Amino acid sequence: MITPLSAQTAPESTGALALDLLRKAVPAGENSVISPYSIQSALVMAYAGAAGGTQGQMKKTLHYGPGAVDSFSALRKEIEATPPRDGELEVADRLFGQDGYPFRPEFLGLLKSKFSAPLEVVDFEKDPPAAARLINAWVEKQTRKRIKNLVPESALDRLTRLVLVNAIYLKAQWAQAFDPALTKPGTFHLAGGKTTEVPMMSRTGRMGSLRGKGFTAVSLPYLGGDLELAVILPDAGLPPLEASLKPEDLSSLCEMPSSEVSLSMPKFRVEPPLLKLGDVLAALGMPSAFDKPRGSADFSGIAPRKPDDYLYISEVFHKAFVEVDEKGTEAAAATAVVMMRAMMAPSDDPLKVVVDRPFFFAINHIPSKTCLFLGRVANPAGAGDMDGGEGKETR
After folding, report:
1. Of 378, 376, 374, 380, whose CA–CA distance to 392 is shortest?
2. How do residues 307-366 score in pLDDT, each as one tens digit?
3. Nearest 5°: CA angle at 108, between 314 and 141?
4. For residue 106, which phi and psi values (nearest 5 degrees)?
5. How far apart are CA 319 and CA 336, in angstroms?
6. How far apart, in whole angstroms, are the C-alpha atoms of residue 105 and residue 84?
């Protein structure tokens, strides 16, 4: 394991941005999932080449501490060193850059050494759609075909100079699987008073559990012990808890004491549409990175900046996928930063937890206390196809 000093800021900044984006970037009351780790991994590569006011805005908005690049590099190495047993956890980064553009060798060398992110030369000027297809094919391969069409062909044009991409893929089995014979139809209470019937898994045993302010949480470890699924069940609906959650609450999910728990929870699959994060990130406090106001973007650490020829971020695309069933979890996510050239105390009695109403979930890397995935399930019957058929809505 790495020393605490080298990775202490990356998990904290990841958790803080996770909550910012959950509140601002995804529609309230809908099924959703993001990978704050993937988003931060792509953005920290752009941050490595930022300067001046752009760097200052990004540092504040993304909650970076001193040595953010080194911190995320160390965190990546720790995550890669602790894969789930009999499963997969892979992280990949790559740069797709315009052939002949004067990228600074120091920048390319830094990302290659810190994030194993080589430069793949493409020709945006000649054929932007072909470049988009190449990027999307790479993402699809890294995520085992779970993330497709991350970068729309229309998002790239002849002024595109660089696309920084992160992909993460996870497939993990529960340390103690659910017995499929115990999965039965159950009632899930939707917001607004309606109900729907969904397949509910059941299991009793030792699990991490926590009674917090306004919620009950349980954690289900995966084989190997370094990864877990945490389910956060609000006492009084998602909105109040979502508004009150703090980054330290996410960290505390990695330290739940073990107790005897009788758990019932739905199988679910969450695969929301493509997210465009540019406007949200600009509104959160880093407009300069998106060249707002015009002429303010400063990524002179990536390539020389001239008054009439400089780089800025045109958009940040993100897609994520999570499926949970009796065997375990499969999850994937990818993020692309597109850069353009501008002209110009446990009880003896089991804690009974029935996840029969909207809930949050997080997939955590326990040693580093990093939130890899964070989402909400408002209606498991509407979260995608599941074995056992779609849920039937009732009143």
Report:
1. 380
2. 888 999 999 999 999 999 999 999 999 999 999 999 754 445 788 889 989 989 999 999
3. 70
4. -65, -40
5. 9
6. 36
107-111, 129-133, 250-254: segment of lowest average pLDDT? 250-254
**φ/ψ (deg, to 5) at 13:** -70, -35
How far from chain centre, in Å, is Cα 389? 28
Alpha carbon distance 57, 288 (integer Å): 7
Task: Give yes or no for a contact between 170 and 331, defined as CB atoms under 8 angstroms apart.
Answer: yes
Peptide bond into 293 cis (omega under 30): yes
The token pair at 140 is 């699809």
- Select from 43, 44, 54, 48 the least CA-distant residue to 107: 48
- Burial level of 273, CB count in 10 A (0-12/13-18/19+)? exposed
Write the Ramachandran bin of 77: left for phi over 0, alpha for psi from -120 to 50, otherwise beta. Answer: alpha
Identify the CA nearest to 334 among candidates 246, 284, 376, 271: 271
In this prediction, residue 103 carries a pLDDT of 97
Lowest mean pLDDT among 1-10, 90-99, 202-211: 1-10
Q: What is the pTM of this model?
A: 0.90
Closest residue by Cα to residue 231 from 368, 379, 353: 353
AA identity, residue 385: D
Integer Cα distance of 253 and 251 in angstroms: 5
- At 130 the three-state DSSP class reads helix
Beta strands in 114-159 (DSSP E): 119-122
Q: Domains in the chain, start-ordered, CATH in brackets?
A: 4-172+271-343 (3.30.497.10), 175-268+345-394 (2.30.39.10)
Bridge partners of 341, per DSSP, are: 311
